[in-house]
Design brief:
Largest sheet of chain B: 7 strands, antiparallel
Number of helices of chain B: 12
Order of helices and strands of chain A: HEEEEEHHEH
Radius of gyration of chain A: 19 Å
Radius of gyration of chain B: 36 Å
Oligomer: heterodimer
Largest interface: A-B, 67 and 69 residues
Helix content of chain A: 25-40%
Structural class of chain A: alpha+beta
Distance between the termini of chain B: 7 Å
Shape of chain B: elongated
Structural class of chain B: alpha+beta
Strand content of chain B: 35-45%
Number of helices of chain A: 4
Largest sheet of chain A: 6 strands, antiparallel
Number of strands of chain A: 6
């Protein structure tokens, strides 16, 4: 039963993770004309994760514009050891549809579905996951200095901007 | 609600995890170098002048605004400004201006350029293209050879983890309609087990609905030197002694090695390309028959896929009228007789003849017949022939390309016996006790319905735990083949009529097309393993 639930959860999460899309993220062909910062998920040690648009980053902290009860809130996360993050700078193509489609195709193969079904599942899940993972960097891929380039304000938030007014 | 088999899920889970791991391992190194930031206009000019296509320019202003210039932007070194057409956004990225822009360079905090990302989906699309091609090839094969890809009937396993290549029995293969319901008895062969509890797993491994009225285990106690064999007429004989084959000859030459032992290495022939009802002969010799009294000829055999081909062929010829024709057949009381006198009669049995030295002629003894290509049938034919000396010659006359034989031998029949009949005392469905299934099997008015992917474990209790038993399986019921959409295109009512009314002509005309994929079909069948999605009759 546990295996069934975890498999179902895995498949559904792969399917749906390919559906979550941030409005401010451009597709890969429009990364040069996008005015917003990239989408970031930050996992501070012993704290809940923060997800949203990367607003700025310096040597001390990074600021993320996140949504809370439909309101935009600017959250400051101190940079320290063990801080993990995942940055997405463009929306990946969605390939979630390939999982049910190719699973269904397998049943055209009769007995040979025993072979084609796992192959189809393996490849489509891999492709879907690869689509989801495309255009992302993790903390091990990129330095904080390089991360600055993906912020809305790569040089930091100008002093005379009221931070509470950032939307 | 669809059910998924736990073991298969684990396999798929492992495969999926492997895929994700492989994918992670194969990910190319991150390429964040598509984006460049410049704090000075000079470095921007120097580094963008050398590239052939000028990128769009993003200017992050000191006041928090951002200007995005199209690829026509220029730097005016005299006025120390950057200009071109583009858009300007405020710090909340609301568009404030669109058109010609000119910015003093000292108002810009950082310039940003981005290279266009090219071929980002190339690998994924290539993988999908390859996968699509493989699927279409597989699909096309099954569409053109549907009979090779689908079908079977209830299969029974002593070891539930076996696949259909090792099925111990298959039930009522001919009962494709309720009116054709019959019982079938299959020898389970030598099946060692401990204690007095015996379990058998029944699987539905095809796109069929199986309706089981009754299942019984038939058991007869035996000692070490004895075997109990079943005849075609379902008479049971306790036998002693076993006389091995000395020589077997067929058209292709000496086949003694193929028929001497129960090793699943079978002798079979290919059909005649000119006529599917062509016959062939196999000659057997037994030279050391010490006791020639009450001899019985034992054989392990099963069919090739020829009859499966005819069943699915017939359904294909019915096309979209399959249900009407089945309903008609169901109402016709002579359906069974018509079918028996059709192709089945034309194809015939494995006929057994014994050489009579005195008359110098072959004398007919009887025949073997059992539909189904999956499980081996282990049967005996009592011989009614006086034999001089210790040598016995047997001739088998059978249809070419229809039978697979694993083993032949002679034995002495001691006496006819009646085995015990035991009904299951417990049924497990996916490991859980299923009282309803048990009640349905106990009630002769009800059917246990088994849908594709279903697996039932049937537990039986034998009278004594320290006694060896010879076991047989009695199964009674019928099954309904699921019509496949792609079979409908094969509709040919004239061909169907010929199949029933003039089987001789049909077998002759069909030979060419059957030969075309006979070899492929066999290979496909024996290299594959049935797997179906799980459907549930009860949860719908």
């Amino acid at each position: 039963m546990k295996t069934k639930v975890s498999t179902l959860f895995l498949l559904i999460s792969v399917l749906f993770s390919s559906c979550t899309r941030q409005k401010y993220l451009p597709n890969s062909k429009e990364i040069d004309v996008n005015q917003y910062g990239s989408y970031i998920e930050v996992y501070p040690l012993n704290e809940t994760s923060v997800k949203g648009e990367l607003i700025s980053i310096d040597k001390v902290e990074l600021m993320v514009l996140t949504k809370q009860d439909e309101k935009s809130i600017l959250k400051t996360i101190p940079i320290g050891r063990g801080l993990k993050f995942k940055l997405r700078y463009a929306s990946g193509k969605r390939y979630g549809w390939t999982i049910p489609t190719y699973t269904a195709l397998s049943f055209m193969h009769g007995w040979a579905a025993m072979f084609s079904l796992p192959v189809n599942l393996l490849v489509t899940v891999a492709i879907t996951n690869s689509g989801v993972q495309a255009f992302t960097y993790k903390n091990q891929d990129i330095s904080y200095e390089e991360l600055q380039m993906f912020a809305r304000f790569p040089g930091g938030i100008p002093e005379y901007i009221d931070r509470d007014k950032i939307q | 609600m669809k059910k998924i088999n736990g073991r298969k899920i684990s396999h798929y889970l492992v495969l999926i995890s492997l895929g994700i791991i492989i994918l992670h391992a194969c990910r190319s190194n991150p390429a964040y170098y598509f984006r460049s930031n410049y704090k000075e206009a000079n470095s921007l000019l120097h580094q963008t002048d050398t590239i052939s296509t000028k990128p769009f320019l993003k200017a992050h202003l000191k006041n928090g605004d951002v200007c995005i210039f199209r690829d026509t932007w220029k730097v005016d070194t005299l006025e120390n400004s950057v200009f071109g057409s583009g858009k300007r956004y405020d710090f909340n990225r609301v568009l404030t201006y669109e058109g010609d822009l000119r910015l003093p360079i000292d108002s810009v905090l950082i310039f940003e350029t981005n290279e266009k990302l090219k071929g980002t989906e190339k690998k994924r699309i290539a993988a999908l293209t390859l996968l699509t091609a493989l699927n279409l090839m597989g699909g096309a094969y099954c569409l053109t050879n549907p009979k090779a890809c689908f079908g079977s009937c209830p299969t029974f396993y002593v070891n539930k983890n076996d696949n259909f290549h090792f099925a111990n029995a298959e039930g009522f293969s001919n009962a494709i309609l309720p009116s054709m319901e019959y019982y079938d008895i299959d020898a389970l062969g030598y099946t060692p087990f401990t204690g007095n509890r015996f379990s058998l797993t029944m699987k539905n491994e095809a796109l069929e609905t199986h309706c089981l009225r009754d299942i019984k285990l038939m058991a007869y106690p035996r000692n070490e030197d004895q075997r109990i064999y079943q005849s075609r007429k379902n008479q049971f004989y306790i036998c002693e002694n076993n006389y091995s084959l000395s020589q077997a000859l067929a058209d292709e030459g000496n086949i003694t090695g193929l028929l001497s032992s129960e090793d699943r290495v079978e002798r079979f022939s290919l059909s005649d390309g000119a006529n599917l009802s062509s016959k062939e002969e196999v000659f057997l010799e037994f030279e050391e028959v010490d006791n020639t009294q009450d001899l019985g000829f034992i054989i392990n055999f099963r069919q090739t896929l020829m009859t499966t081909y005819f069943i699915y062929g017939a359904m294909g010829y019915m096309g979209d009228e399959v249900s009407d024709i089945f309903a008609m057949m169901e109402e016709d009381k002579e359906t069974v007789a018509k079918l028996d006198n059709g192709i089945k009669k034309e194809l015939g049995d494995i006929d057994v003849y014994v050489w009579n030295d005195l008359k110098e002629e072959w004398v007919f003894q009887g025949g073997f017949y059992e539909t189904g290509p999956i499980a081996f049938n282990h049967q005996i034919l009592p011989l009614d022939q006086k034999v001089k000396g210790k040598k016995l010659r047997i001739k088998l006359l059978m249809n070419k390309g229809l039978w697979r034989m694993d083993y032949v031998a002679l034995t002495n029949i001691k006496e006819q016996v009646e085995p015990l009949e035991l009904r299951p005392n417990q049924i497990l469905n996916k490991g859980v006790k299923d009282q309803r299934a048990l009640n349905e099997l106990k009630n002769p008015e009800q059917f246990l319905i088994s849908m594709p992917g279903d697996e039932f474990q049937l537990d039986f209790e034998l009278p004594e735990s320290d006694q060896e038993y010879e076991l047989f399986l009695y199964s009674k019921g019928y099954y309904l083949e699921w019509m496949r959409e792609h079979w409908i295109k094969d509709k040919n009512l004239l061909k169907l009529r010929q199949m029933f009314k003039n089987p001789k002509k049909f077998l002759s005309e069909e030979a060419e097309s059957y030969k075309l994929y006979e070899a492929n079909m066999e290979q496909e069948f024996w290299n594959s393993k049935i797997d179906t999605e799980t459907f549930s009759y009860y949860e719908n």
